[in-house]
Amino acid sequence: MVQLPAFMRERAHLVFFALLAVAASGFGQTFFISIFGGALREEFGLSNAWYGATYSAATLVSAIGLLACGSLVDRWPLRRITAVVVTVLALACLLMASASHALMLLPGFFLLRFAGQGFMTHLGMTTAGRYFSSNRGKVIAVAALGFPLAEALLPTGGAWLIEAFGWRSAWLASALALLCLALPALLWLARTESRSPGDSTGDGDPGEGFSRGQVMRDPGFYLLLPAALMTPMVVTAVLFHQGAIGEARGWSLTLLGSAFGGYAAGHLLMLFLAGSLVDRFGAQRSLPLALLPMVAGLALLAFFEKSWVPMAYLTLLGITQAGTGTAAGAMWPERYGTRHLGAIRAVSQGAMILSTAISPLLVGILLDAGVGVAPLAGALGTAVAGSMALAMLAPAARR
């Protein structure tokens, strides 16, 4: 019989709840929605520009929605907020399946991004951060395994359903999977957390901590936030425009496709190390160090054009993805406590969604304006290095 690691045994149900919630966020993530792009554009006669603008607009509005509703995680019992969010995400899938006009894509995308990318990720990572303290880094790393799990299963399964039964059937199947599999499993895993987080006692000690207003008045928050945002912002922009980068460098689609294996491997392998490193050195100290592989990867992209570069730089980006995701997830409860963690994380999660909506647009404008890959990668690397410097200047929060 397989024995769970010691840090998971006491509250294993909450560890697996966080993992499953993060994995279920995949139904609202770009890597899943993107497989429907061709079918949706063909069905409604959309240009790439109109389709992209609709998606970006819905993503931006979803960030505002998360800022407004994210603190519900602090006030509602875990089972109640879980039932509401999973139901909304399933309704978003049903809305996409029943879309009869291009304008219906806007509310569909909004609900997918709000409930999926935004709130399900927020729910899973807040749970991992709130109920654990001594091994918080390890638990957050386990929860973050939900991302590569969803990346491996959802696009492949969705593409098969589209090819076999059509894109509407794929969205219907997604809604059924959420309502019939994910929702019962999540409610069962959250079965012992019937009270609101502020009333319960646990390893994370919800009785102490900064309010969101206090955090917003802390200068250290603004020194740390750019480092927390830099990885999703840069990775989204680079991966979204990977085809244009490959064309500029003469890299084939086959070469780029195989290089994504390096990204996934770097991401997955680093997750097994990141939690222990964060628990040992502290999240705030680990965050700028975790950005170093990304700086190295962007330097490779800027100065070298050989065929080995895509594999190398994407592997380094995957390593940073795991390291910064774990460190940033543990940093807010470590620095500000857990009583208002949902409200605090809603700010950082909303800012992350905003950055991932804007960065592909900005990079696309630069590429269209004739900016080359080398200066673009150099500018991104400089921005990452600057965020590292700011994070290292952040003082400890005063309790």
Task: Using brief descriptors, characterize the structure shown.
single chain; 399 residues; mainly alpha; Growth Hormone, Chain: A; 2 domains; 79% helix
Your description of this structure?
This protein is an all-alpha fold. It has two domains: 1-207, Up-down Bundle (Growth Hormone, Chain: A); 209-399, Growth Hormone, Chain: A (Up-down Bundle), CATH 1.20.1250. The protein has helices at residues 6-9, 12-24, 30-33, 37-44, 48-69, 72-75, 78-97, 105-130, 136-144, 146-165, 167-189, 212-216, 219-240, 242-249, 253-281, 283-290, 292-303, 309-336, 341-368, 373-393. Helix 15 (253-281) runs antiparallel to helix 16. The longest helix is centred in the C-terminal third of the chain and has 29 residues, at 253-281. The mean pLDDT is 88.
- Which CATH first-tier class of the largest domain would you pick? Mainly Alpha
Estimated structural class: mainly alpha
Strand portion, in percent? under 5%
Order of helices and strands: HHHHHHHHHHHHHHHHHHHH
Number of helices: 20
What is the percent of helical residues?
over 70%
Task: Provide mean pLDDT, rounded.
Answer: 88
What is the third-level CATH name, the topology of the largest domain? Growth Hormone, Chain: A
CATH superfamily of the largest domain: MFS general substrate transporter like domains
Number of strands: 0
Largest sheet: none
The CATH architecture designation of the largest domain is Up-down Bundle
Question: What number of domains?
Answer: 2
Could you tell me the radius of gyration in angstroms? 20 Å
Low-confidence stretches: none
Global outline: globular
End-to-end CA span: 44 Å
